[in-house]
Amino acid sequence: MNKMVDTATRLHSLYETALSHLQSPLLLAVRLYWGWQFFQTGYGKLMHISKVVGFFTTLGIPFPAFNAYFVSSLECVGGALLFLGFGSRLIALPLTIDMLVAYIAADRAALFSIFSDPGKFYAADPYTFFFASLLILVFGPGKISLDLSRIHLVRISAVRGQYFVSIVK
What's the rounded mean pLDDT across residues 43-68? Predict the structure, then answer.
């Protein structure tokens, strides 16, 4: 019986190890795909800003012109940063809030149907953007990112001397 438990424990450990190696590639795929989607969406909004201002006006969003430029720029620049994996967690927070506000302002019925009609919630436009930015916010960019490369460079420089580290700070 003890041998069976040991075997099961070893198999579970191997299973967990194998799956944990897939975390960074998955986060990379999420960042690349949804970073590009955010970038394209933001860029498209910037190229047709008058339509975005008009849409924000119909929704009753205060300062529609300012908010249209702000949201469009956030999605464009934030998407590029997500794509590169640079400042990922930092930019994921405003992108998550942006998508939550999109739910509240443009698709409130879908937001409030999260428990009563989950299909309506999942089918809403902001859902996948919200989920992707929340995923990066919670789990980080993964090991394949410029965020991790930057940290690695600082650690290497700390070994070689204090001069570079003081510049990075």
Answer: 97
Q: What backbone phi and psi angles, to 5 degrees, belong to 168? A: -65, -35
Sole residue written with tokens 């860029």: 43
Q: With a threshold of 0.85, does the pTM exceed it? A: no
**Identity of the residue numbered 27:** L
Classify residue 136 by burial, with Cβ atoms within 10 Å: 0-12, 13-18, 19+. Answer: buried
Q: Which residue has the higher pLDDT, 154 or 102?
A: 102
Write the secondary structure of 99-143 as one string of H (helix), E (strand) and C (coil): HHHHHHHHCHHHHHCCCCCHHHHHHCCHHHHHHHHHHHHHHCCCC
- Half-sphere CA count of 143, side-chain side, radius 13 A: 6
Identity (one letter) of the amino acid at 20?
S
Q: What is the mean pLDDT of residues 121-146?
A: 93
